[in-house]
C-alpha cells in the first residue's frame, strides 16, 4: 500500500470514529482489568506513547515498565495464560505441546531441517509454554552485549523475585546431580541462578505445587491507568510515514506511526502512536514473529519482498538471517522405580560449551509426543547443502522405537509404570551453525519458513561428541546406574522397553577410536531435536543498533530473543525477561533522566 494512501485512510477513519482512543473497559480477565479481547477493540486506537507487539517473555516486562510513566498499548495474538490448565500446571507441559488449534497457547511448526518445534501464542509468550527452567546469562554474554551490569543485575532480581523459585529435587534429579559430579562436572554450586561452571540446581517458574508463573505475572507491576492490553490481536503490518531526520542534508527516513492488526473474527483494526516524536513502536514478537513482521511491513531482503509484492520500506538482507536453534540430543534412562515428574532442575555446565540438563518421569509424555508419523529431514532447498539432507531417520525414529516397545506391552500395567525413567539431555553452546527465515504467506498468523542448519559447522558436532561422551559417563556413574532398571528389579514387562532405550543410545565401538567418534557424531545428527531456544533474525549490529533501534528507520525498536546471536546461559528465558525490564528502564531514563525506573 502506498504511504499516502495509508495516511488518507487513517484520516478517514479518524473522521469517522473521532478520538475513540479508550475503549470501554471490559473487566473480563479476573487478573488484570486492562486486558481485553481484540474483538471488543474499536477500529481505531490513538495516541499511545508506545505500541508493543507481542505480549511475550520480553514484551510483558517491557510494557509493565514503560507504563509507569507513559501510555502503552500491548497487542498479543494469543489468549490469556490464566485458568488455562495446560499452561498453568507442570504436568500440562507435554500435552500442551501436542495442541495446535488456531487459539492454542502452543503453535506447532516444523523447521525446514525436518525437526518438529513449537512457538508461543499466548500472553506470557514462551514463558507460558516452556519447561520453566530459570537461570541467568553467562557474565561473558552480558559483557559482550555492552549492557550496564548494575542495571542487568537489578533487572534480573526484579524478574526473579516475581516469577522464580528453587525446586526441591526428587530421587531422579538428585541421582543425576550426584552422577554429574561423579562424571567430573565439578564443583557443586548448590542452588543458584548464576551461570557458573560445575553442577547446580537452577531456578524454576513452577512452584512446589507445580503451578507455573509466567512473564504475564510481571504485568502486576503495570500502571493500570496507562496500559491497554488486547488479546487475540494479530499485528499484520507496521505503518510508516516519511519523516525528516534531525541530521541536516540527510534523506528523510521512514518513521513508524502505528500498526494494523486483526482480531479472531477477521476484522481489521488500526492503532496509532501519539504525535510526540519520542513515541515508538516496539516489536517483541519473538525470534520467528519479529523478523516475519518486519518483512511483512517492507523491511527485509528486497528480492524476497519483491517475490511477495510487498512494497519496500527499507532494504536489509540481514532481516531473517542468522536464525539459530541449539541442537539437543537426549539419552533415555529407565529406572527401577517410579520417579518424580520433573522438567529441568539440575544442570551441568562444562567448560567446553556442553550444557547437560535433566528431566524425569516423562515416559507418559513420551507416549503422547511420539505417537504419530515420523518426519523426514528435507531435501536441499535454495539455502544450499545441509548436513541433515537425505537422512531418513530422526530423533523420532530412535524414540519411536521406545514408543513401539511401550505400545507392545499391555497398556494398563505400563501406564502405572509411566514414570519409571528420565532423560539426560545435552544442549550445546551457541550454536555456531545458523540458517534463514523467510515468509511462507502474507498472513502474520501463519508460520514463516525457517531453517536452522543444525550441526552445519563442524565445531558444533565436536561439542556434541564431547558432551555426549560426558553425558554417557554420567548415566553410567554409580549414582545413576544404581537407580537404573535391571532385570531383577522390574517385572519382565519393561524388558523390551529397556532394550529400546538402550538401542536409542549411540552405538559404541571401544576397539576403534575413529569408528567410535564417527558413531557418536552420526548419532548426534540422527537424533537431533530442538530445546526450543531458537533465536536470531534481528541481530544487534545487523538489524538493530545497541539500543535495539531498527537501523534506517525511525521510532521503531525490536526487543526480544530475535536480537541474540547466541542463546544466553544454559536456558534463555531469564535473560529475555531481564532484557524487557532492562530496556524499559533504559527508555524511561532516556526520557526522564537517570533516576527513572528504579
Ligand atoms: C516448549 C519450550 C520450552 C522451553 N523451555 C525453556 C526453559 O525451560 N527455560 C528457558 O529459559 N527457556 C525455555 N524456552 C525458551 C524461552 O521460553 C524463549 O527463548 C523465550 O520465551 C523467547 O522470548 P521472546 O520474548 O523472544 O518471544 P516469545 O516469548 O515467544 O514472545 C513473542 C510473543 O509475540 C506474540 N506474537 C508473535 N507475532 C505476533 C503478531 N504478529 N502480533 C501479535 N503478537 C505476536 C506471540 O504470540 C508471543 O506471545 C522454551 C521454549 C519453548 C517453546
Ligand atoms: C474473544 O472473542 C472471540 C470473537 O468474538 C470469541 O470467539 C472468543 O471466545 C473470545 N475469547 C475470550 C477468551 O473472551
Ligand atoms: C514515573 O512513574 C513513577 C511511578 O509511577 C513516579 O513515581 C514518577 O514520579 C514518575 N516520573 C515522572 C517524571 O513522571
Ligand atoms: C552483578 O552480578 C554478578 C553476579 O552475581 C556479580 O559478580 C557482579 O559483581 C554484579 N555487578 C554489579 C555491578 O552489581
Ligand atoms: C482487512 O484488510 C484486508 C487488507 O486491506 C482486506 O483484504 C480484508 O478484506 C479486510 N477484512 C475485513 C473483514 O474487512
Ligand atoms: C505478485 O504479483 C504478481 C503480478 O500481479 C502476481 O502474478 C503474483 O502472484 C504475486 N505474488 C504473490 C506471492 O502474491
Ligand atoms: C521417510 O523416508 C522413508 C525412507 O526414505 C520413506 O520410506 C518414508 O515414506 C518417508 N516418510 C515420510 C513421512 O515422508
Ligand atoms: C536381562 O535382559 C536381557 C535383555 O534386556 C536379556 O538378554 C537377559 O536374558 C535378561 N536376563 C535375565 C536374567 O533375565
Ligand atoms: C577404525 O575405523 C575406521 C573408520 O571406520 C577405519 O577406517 C579403520 O580401518 C578402523 N581401524 C581398525 C584398526 O579397525
UniProtKB/TrEMBL annotation:
Domain Glucose-methanol-choline oxidoreductase N-terminal: 286-300
Pfam families named among the record's database cross-references: GMC_oxred_C, GMC_oxred_N
Position of the signal peptide: 1-28
Record PROSITE patterns: GMC_OXRED_2
Transmembrane segments: none
InterPro entries per record: FAD/NAD-bd_sf (IPR036188), GMC_Oxidoreductase-Related (IPR051871), GMC_OxRdtase (IPR012132), GMC_OxRdtase_N (IPR000172), GMC_OxRtase_C (IPR007867)
Necessary cofactors: FAD
Disulfide bond annotation, renumbered to this chain: 464-524
Keywords of the record: Disulfide bond, FAD, Flavoprotein, Signal
Single GO MF descriptor: oxidoreductase activity, acting on CH-OH group of donors
Binding site for FAD: 76-77, 122, 235, 532-533, 561, 572-573
Family: Belongs to the GMC oxidoreductase family.
Name of this protein: Glucose-methanol-choline oxidoreductase N-terminal domain-containing protein
Amino acid at each position: 500500500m502506498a504511504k499516502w494512501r495509508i495516511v488518507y485512510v487513517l484520516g478517514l477513519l479518524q473522521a469517522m470514529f473521532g478520538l475513540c482512543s479508550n475503549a470501554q473497559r471490559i473487566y473480563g480477565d479476573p487478573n488484570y482489568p486492562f486486558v481485553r479481547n481484540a474483538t471488543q477493540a474499536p477500529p481505531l486506537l490513538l495516541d499511545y506513547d508506545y505500541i508493543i507487539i507481542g505480549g511475550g517473555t520480553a514484551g510483558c516486562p517491557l510494557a509493565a515498565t514503560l507504563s509507569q510513566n507513559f501510555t502503552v498499548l500491548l497487542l498479543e495474538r494469543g489468549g490469556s495464560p490464566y485458568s488455562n490448565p495446560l499452561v498453568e500446571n507442570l504436568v500440562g507441559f507435554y500435552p500442551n505441546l501436542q495442541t495446535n488449534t488456531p487459539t492454542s497457547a502452543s503453535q506447532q511448526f516444523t523447521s525446514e531441517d525436518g525437526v518438529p518445534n513449537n512457538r508461543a501464542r499466548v500472553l506470557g509468550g514462551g514463558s507460558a509454554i516452556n519447561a520453566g527452567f530459570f537461570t541467568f546469562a553467562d557474565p561473558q554474554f552480558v559483557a559482550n552485549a555492552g549492557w550496564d551490569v548494575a542495571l542487568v543485575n537489578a533487572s534480573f532480581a526484579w524478574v526473579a523475585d516475581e516469577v522464580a523459585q528453587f525446586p526441591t529435587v526428587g530421587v531422579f534429579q538428585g541421582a543425576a546431580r550426584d552422577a554429574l559430579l561423579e562424571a567430573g562436572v565439578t564443583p557443586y554450586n548448590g542452588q543458584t541462578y548464576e551461570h557458573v561452571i560445575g553442577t547446580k540446581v537452577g531456578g524454576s517458574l513452577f512452584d512446589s505445587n507445580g503451578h507455573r508463573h509466567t512473564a504475564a505475572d510481571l504485568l502486576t507491576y503495570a500502571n493500570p491507568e496507562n496500559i491497554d492490553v488486547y488479546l487475540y490481536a494479530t499485528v499484520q503490518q507496521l505503518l510508516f510515514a516519511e519523516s525528516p531526520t534531525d541530521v541536516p542534508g540527510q534523506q528523510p527516513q521512514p518513521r513508524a506511526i502505528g500498526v494494523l492488526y486483526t482480531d479472531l473474527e477477521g476484522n481489521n483494526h488500526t492503532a496509532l502512536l501519539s504525535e510526540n516524536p519520542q513515541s515508538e513502536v516496539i516489536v517483541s514478537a519473538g525470534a520467528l514473529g519479529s523478523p516475519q513482521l518486519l518483512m511483512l511491513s517492507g523491511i527485509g531482503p528486497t528480492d524476497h519482498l519483491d517475490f511477495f509484492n510487498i512494497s519496500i520500506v527499507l532494504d536489509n538482507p540481514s532481516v531473517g538471517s542468522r536464525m539459530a536453534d541449539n541442537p539437543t540430543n537426549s539419552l533415555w534412562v529407565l529406572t527401577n522405580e517410579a520417579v518424580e515428574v520433573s522438567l529441568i532442575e539440575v544442570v551441568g555446565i562444562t567448560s567446553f560449551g556442553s550444557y547437560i540438563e535433566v528431566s524425569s518421569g516423562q515416559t507418559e509424555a513420551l507416549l503422547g509426543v511420539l505417537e504419530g508419523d515420523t518426519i523426514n529431514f528435507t531435501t536441499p532447498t535454495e539455502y544450499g547443502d545441509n548436513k541433515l539432507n537425505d537422512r531418513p531417520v530422526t530423533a523420532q525414529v530412535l524414540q519411536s522405537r521406545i514408543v513401539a516397545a511401550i505400545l507392545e506391552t499391555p497398556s494398563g500395567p505400563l501406564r502405572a509404570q509411566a514414570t519409571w525413567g528420565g532423560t539426560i539431555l545435552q544442549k550445546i553452546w551457541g550454536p555456531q551453525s545458523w540458517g534463514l527465515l523467510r515468509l511462507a504467506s502474507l498472513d502474520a498468523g501463519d508460520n514463516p519458513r525457517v531453517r536452522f542448519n543444525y550441526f552445519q559447522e563442524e565445531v558444533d558436532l565436536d561439542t556434541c561428541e564431547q558432551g555426549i561422551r560426558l553425558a554417557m559417563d554420567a548415566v553410567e556413574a554409580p549414582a545413576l546406574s544404581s537407580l537404573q532398571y535391571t532385570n531383577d528389579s522390574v517385572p519382565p514387562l519393561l524388558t523390551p522397553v529397556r532394550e529400546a532405550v538402550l538401542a536409542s543410545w549411540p552405538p559404541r565401538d571401544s576397539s576403534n577410536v575413529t569408528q567410535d567418534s564417527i558413531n557418536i557424531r552420526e548419532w548426534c545428527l540422527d537424533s537431533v531435536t530442538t530445546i526450543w531456544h531458537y533465536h536470531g533474525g534481528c541481530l544487534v549490529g545487523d538489524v538493530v543498533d545497541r539500543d535495539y533501534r531498527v537501523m534506517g528507520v525511525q521510532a521503531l525498536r525490536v526487543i526480544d530473543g530475535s536480537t541474540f546471536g547466541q542463546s544466553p546461559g544454559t536456558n534463555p528465558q531469564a535473560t529475555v525477561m531481564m532484557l524487557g525490564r532492562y530496556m524499559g528502564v533504559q527508555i524511561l531514563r532516556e526520557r526522564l533522566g537517570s533516576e527513572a525506573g528504579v
